[in-house]
Amino acid sequence: MLAVVPPERRAEIARQLGTFRAELLFVGHSAEAAAVIREDDVYQVALLPASLSDTDWWELWGVLALLNPPPAILVYARETTFLLWSGVLELGGCDVIVEPFSDEELQRAVLRAVKCFDESTRINRNDSPRSAF
Known about the structure:
Elements: E1 2-4, H1 10-16, E2 25-27, H2 30-36, E3 45-49, H3 54-65, E4 72-77, H4 82-90, E5 95-98, H5 103-124
Parallel strand pairs: 1-2, 1-3, 3-4, 4-5
């Protein structure tokens, strides 16, 4: 999982996601992400702050779009509006989560994003959904 989180929040986010036993890659900004992410890296989820500048958003979005498969985008924000939420979905993101969030809220949001990632990779591989029957 890729998480764009300020240094002072990394320990908290790592603790909140500790039960997943997932490998977390923390970066502070889009330029750092561009420097450490390689095209053959696979991240199921990218946790991104809504507070990034437009330039950072587009730079980071460009880096993530080069990944194959691209991660599911989970945005966190202090408050959300219909414009933010619909904009995230319109650009292919999965969800917006509002701060402060509990451990359970973050974990549920990440699980939804993983499901979104799994569904998009299945569709991109042209696999048929498995029948429940």
